[in-house]
């Protein structure tokens, strides 16, 4: 990649997804950007005939849309049995409530998040899940005391009794394509929602 976008590095990564290849990198091309204030970017590309990576130009367009990102159709099947999440809290923590249909819908699980002593001291919490079957909307509701931030939230996963996550299908993506239900969220004292 030529030197572009006001950044002296690009920290690249390549992901091959559904028969296409994507080059992820960062640059300082946005307003106020620099070598230390960078933005994540992605470009779709094709490998050269000999398997090498071509020179990739930075753009502001990015790749064409792969499919519908939201909503996800969460197919619980017979039902997950365990919820796991990676969390950190410099405060007293809080709870992650798993609800169906709405922010006040049926509670299918509740995980307690204790303080870990720092916003970057991570731990994995787990709790039982009961009552989620078939395809439904799943909401993660973060609760706690006071008005301070509750905890940082890195990722979450639902596991069946066998330990494998339920499958996720995305509208517009062939039905033969399945992925584990795992997502990443920014720290939030509010609510993360997945619609199905």
UniProtKB/TrEMBL annotation:
Residue ranges occupied by any CBM6 domain in the UniProt entry: 20-159
Highest taxon above the source species: Eukaryota
InterPro entries to which the protein is assigned, alphabetical: CBM6 (IPR005084), Cellulose-bd_IV (IPR006584), Galactose-bd-like_sf (IPR008979), Glyco_hydro_beta-prop_sf (IPR023296), Glycosyl_Hydrlase_43_Enz (IPR052176)
GO terms assigned for molecular function: carbohydrate binding
Region (Disordered): 162-196
Keywords assigned: Carbohydrate metabolism, Signal
SMART domains, alphabetized: CBD_IV
Name of a matching Pfam family: CBM_6
Low complexity bias spans: 174-189
Protein name (Swiss-Prot/TrEMBL): CBM6 domain-containing protein
Gene source species: Pyricularia grisea (Crabgrass-specific blast fungus)
Lineage, opening ranks: Eukaryota, Fungi, Dikarya, Ascomycota, Pezizomycotina
């Amino acid at each position: 990649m030529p030197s572009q976008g006001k950044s002296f590095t690009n920290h690249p990564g390549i992901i091959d997804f559904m028969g296409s290849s994507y080059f992820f990198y960062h640059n300082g091309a946005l307003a106020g950007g620099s070598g230390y204030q960078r933005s994540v970017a992605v470009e779709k590309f094709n490998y050269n005939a000999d398997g090498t990576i071509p020179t990739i130009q930075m753009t502001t367009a990015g790749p064409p849309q792969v499919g519908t990102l939201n909503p996800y159709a969460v197919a619980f099947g017979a039902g997950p049995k365990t919820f796991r999440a990676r969390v950190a809290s410099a405060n007293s923590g809080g709870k992650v409530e798993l609800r169906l249909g709405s922010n006040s819908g049926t509670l299918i699980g509740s995980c307690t998040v204790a303080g870990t002593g720092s916003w970057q001291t991570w731990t994995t919490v787990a709790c039982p899940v009961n009552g989620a079957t078939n395809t439904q909307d799943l909401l993660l509701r973060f609760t706690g005391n006071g008005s301070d931030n509750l905890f940082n939230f890195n990722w979450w996963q639902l596991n069946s009794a066998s330990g494998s996550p339920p499958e996720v299908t995305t509208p517009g993506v062939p039905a033969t394509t399945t992925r584990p239900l795992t997502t990443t969220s920014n720290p939030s004292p509010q609510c993360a929602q997945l619609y199905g």
